[in-house]
Amino acid sequence: MSKQVVPKAECTEARRRPTLIAWARHAGPDGQWLLAPQPWRVTAARTRELTVSEPDGAAAALVRQREVPLHGDVADWLWQQYPGTEPGLHQVRMRRIETLPTQAACAVFDYGSPIARGRASALVVRSGRQATVFVAAAVQARHAELLPVLVRILDSCRPCPDGIAPAARRALLARLLRLGTEADDP
Prior knowledge:
By secondary structure, the chain is an alpha+beta fold. Helix content is 21%, strand content 47%. Helix 2 runs antiparallel to helix 3 (166-184). The chain has a 7-stranded antiparallel beta sheet with strand order 4-5-6-10-9-8-7, with helices on both faces. The protein has a 3-stranded antiparallel beta sheet with strand order 1-2-3, with helices on one face. It has 3 helices and 10 strands. It starts with a strand and ends with a helix. A hairpin with a 5-residue loop joins strand 2 (17-27) and strand 3 (33-37).
């Protein structure tokens, strides 16, 4: 994983006060790259699989390639089969799921154990038998706070592994952000 500092900064709400965040460009071994806040960790365990995690482990943005049935509802796959493809994803409880245009779906689900609970917002975009899954996951208490940063990380991934235009994917990720925010409302 190579790293290049990008002259970008963003104000975000971190613990209810504005904080300047420096972003860096990280390139994977297959040429795919994304932007991540410093000092978040970026790993590429396999080709076309990127993980960006907050230093304290409270959040992660994941980009995953998965094989899906050629025919069938992508929302059903996301609901029933996706959790089984992620090691360490236990006790999943789906909160909301939506089918989107262009062979896509998004969902919000809780996971974990009684000791450590998390919430994830996931977008899957299918192209034939391949799907790209974009996941924004965080401990439940910080999901709403960290979701905008996680979605920005996911939106920066290039080239678009799902094969759709960046503007179309941005619209899908905006829907994921709204769905995830709505799920966090009391």
